[in-house]
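In response to the reviewer comment on reproducibility (Comment 2.3), we provide here a single inverse folding case reported in full, input and output, so that an independent group could reproduce the run without further information from us. The structure tokens appear first.
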């Protein structure tokens, strides 16, 4: 089958851009693969939601994230690009983070330059570490990876001009790609020519930044990986609330007008046939 990191490197060479909806557990990762996407991202925001029932507060610890990622990579055959927060501490912590993430089989990861613990920039304005400290984290990540194909992405939450400066410094430090969060449509459109390397971009609906734009539009601007960090999480949450409201009002789930997977279709999607096959092969009375 080959390493997923090698697959990702090849996909980056073969495609002008890649679209990576973000998973937060094994089931959402399987759905991304089933839909035909070539890679999947991951969402720290989503993991905080499904594991802790909280927004992205930075409280999810390294061991919890590694456990989730291991289950994701076991569930699918497509490369997974992981959120490694801020490396869970200093450059010394980054060393352990890379070693642990490497074991999960993820194809790549990004580390951000927020102060620890990090937080979602949509909740609180992020505070960032110095450029020098982040470069030390990048060096630690690159030097530690046992898999030379593991894609290391450096994310910056700095304001636009500083973000460009930091992005280019992070590329010089050895990052394979950078991730920047444009704050306006103008920044989104201006950014690609200013950065000396490939850019990872997250798209957020109804934030006034990329409204009306498709992933293809962003690919034409020069972005290499385009993710949807919270779309699946928000869609699933809406479906859960809608279904539960119907059950509460009707005292039944029969007749629900929303999307509803048939039992047989779910069994096929989740891989029940494979388990039946190996059961027939190996289980003995």
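Designed residues, in position order:
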């Amino acid at each position: 089958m080959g390493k997923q990191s090698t697959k990702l490197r090849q996909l980056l060479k073969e495609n002008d851009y890649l679209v990576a909806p973000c998973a937060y557990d094994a089931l959402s990762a399987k759905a991304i693969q089933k839909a035909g996407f070539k890679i999947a991202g991951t969402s720290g925001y989503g993991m905080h939601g499904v594991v802790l029932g909280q927004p992205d507060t930075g409280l999810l610890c390294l061991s919890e994230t590694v456990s989730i990622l291991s289950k994701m990579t076991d569930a699918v055959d497509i490369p997974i690009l992981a959120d490694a927060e801020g490396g869970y501490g200093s450059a010394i912590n980054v060393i352990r983070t890379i070693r642990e993430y490497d074991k999960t089989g993820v194809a790549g990861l990004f580390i951000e330059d927020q102060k620890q613990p990090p937080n979602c920039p949509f909740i609180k304005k992020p505070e960032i570490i110095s450029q020098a400290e982040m470069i030390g984290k990048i060096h630690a990540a690159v030097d530690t990876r046992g898999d030379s194909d593991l894609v290391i992405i450096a994310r910056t939450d700095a304001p636009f001009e500083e973000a460009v400066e930091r992005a280019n410094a992070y590329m010089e430090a050895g990052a394979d790609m950078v991730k920047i969060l444009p704050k306006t449509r103008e920044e989104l459109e201006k950014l690609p020519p200013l950065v000396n390397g490939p850019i990872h971009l997250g798209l957020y609906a109804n934030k006034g930044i990329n409204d009306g734009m498709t992933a293809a539009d962003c690919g034409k601007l020069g972005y290499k990986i385009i993710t949807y960090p919270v779309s699946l999480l928000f869609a699933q949450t809406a479906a859960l609330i809608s279904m539960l409201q119907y059950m509460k009002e009707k005292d039944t789930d029969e007749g629900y007008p929303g999307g509803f997977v048939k039992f047989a279709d779910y069994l096929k999607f989740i891989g029940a046939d494979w388990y039946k096959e190996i059961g027939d092969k190996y289980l003995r009375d």
